[in-house]
Amino acid sequence: MKLTKKQTEAYDFLNDAKTVEVGFGGGAGGGKSVLGCLWQIEKRLKYPKTRGLIGRSKLKTLKETTLMSFFDVAKKQGLQSGVHYKYREQGSRIEFYNGSIIFLKDLFFYPSDPEFDELGSLELTDAYLDETAQITRKAFTITKTRIRYQLNENDLIPKILWTSNPSKNWNYTDFYLPYRKNELPNYRKFIPALAKHNPYLPKHYIETLDNLPKNERERLRDGNWEYDDDPTALIDYDKLMDIWSNDFVKGGEMYISADIARFGQDSTVIGIWDGWQLIEIIQLKKKDLNQVSSIIDSLRIKNNVPLSNVIADEDGLGGGVIDFLGCKGFVNNSRPLNDENYSNLKSQCYFRLAEKINRNEIFIKSNSFEDKINEELEQVKQHNMDKDGKKQIIPKERVKESLGRSPDFSDMIAMRVYFDIQEKPKETTPINELQGIFY
């Protein structure tokens, strides 16, 4: 069976003595499933009584897609079903004549099993995860912890392969972005593979990709990881990139918004605003509440920001900053302002922020944290879009799962919206009209 140059490169990493994690993909037609299935077959044949795993977000989809690739690769390798291996549909496993097994697993994140306890009883020799755009970082991490079976006996090291089209999840932050910056650790590799790298595709396949809509063409033909085809995304990618060059946005009143660290690993992020120009961003780590409060107050005085134009996250430890400064407090799960149709204040501000970005009404002067801000704002997505009810963004825990950190920068930016939509004071009867009533 002939491999492409990209598949061969990945295969070498999958068989060396130092690479533990291999990511492969970036576009349609790059040969992702073929690589994964071939690797699993050859490992099971070479090492009797070992155990591999092929996982995908949903087992039903795995059986309809990846498993079909497995049967095709097995046939091309001269293997016969019922002779060299047996597919046990009831047990979702493939058993080889030499005692080796491949488990087929559903790796979808179910709220009833957030720790993937079903994987807890497995002991694996290696694992292949297909189409990981739909698989969480936790599923990937827990799968890695199960790879220990028959390693010493066969002089092997743990190996895990994932394949995917471009997506803005942990694949992007942990593999693609460090790869692009040449910062991948030695144990981790990423190999981009596109349809143009695969000479064995049908001759008209590239034309099919050429005719896709722009976002899909960028992702599936060109392997552009910066484009997200998620229909729940609230911010247009091109408009997001514009926030760094929208220098025509005018200044105005001065404001400060601050997302206060709640836990040891989170950081406090402070933004100084001139109207809708974000002119300075300060990140504080390992500062106590008194220090944070003093720094915000100093920034307020330095930039001539009235106290009524300062807002800080009031949840958790942020309440202490509110008490110290006497500024406005932002409570994420409080009711939306002006009784608008949002599930809470945080969702309201993020939806409004997305509208401003899409209208080119925000300019960020400081680009010190550009990558992090872009990554976080790309995670601004609508939760339960297909359901009726109040508008809501996806929960923070899911964002943290995708990013591997708290979205402190985007939370700080979203809080600035509060001043544009804060509740209007109720109308009162003018004093001269009241006087007329009594005379």
Your description of this structure?
By secondary structure, this protein is α/β, with parallel strands linked by helices. It has 2 domains: 5-221, Rossmann fold (3-Layer(aba) Sandwich); 237-421, 2-Layer Sandwich (Nucleotidyltransferase, domain 5), CATH 3.30.420.240. Helix content is 35%, strand content 16%. The chain is built from 17 helices and 14 strands. The strands form 2 sheets. It has an 8-stranded mixed beta sheet, sandwiched between helices. A 6-stranded mixed beta sheet has the order 13-12-9-10-11-14. β4 (93-96) and β5 (101-106) form a beta hairpin. α10 (289-302) crosses α11 and α12 packs across α15 (408-415). The longest helix has 15 residues, at 32-46. The chain is elongated, with a radius of gyration of 27 Å.
SS-derived structural category: alpha/beta
CATH superfamily of the largest domain: P-loop containing nucleotide triphosphate hydrolases
Q: Can you count the beta strands?
A: 14
Distance between the termini: 101 Å
Portion of residues in helices?
25-40%
Number of helices: 17
- % residues in beta strands: 15-25%
Instruction: Report the CATH topology name of the largest domain.
Output: Rossmann fold
> How confident overall, as mean pLDDT?
89
Shape: elongated
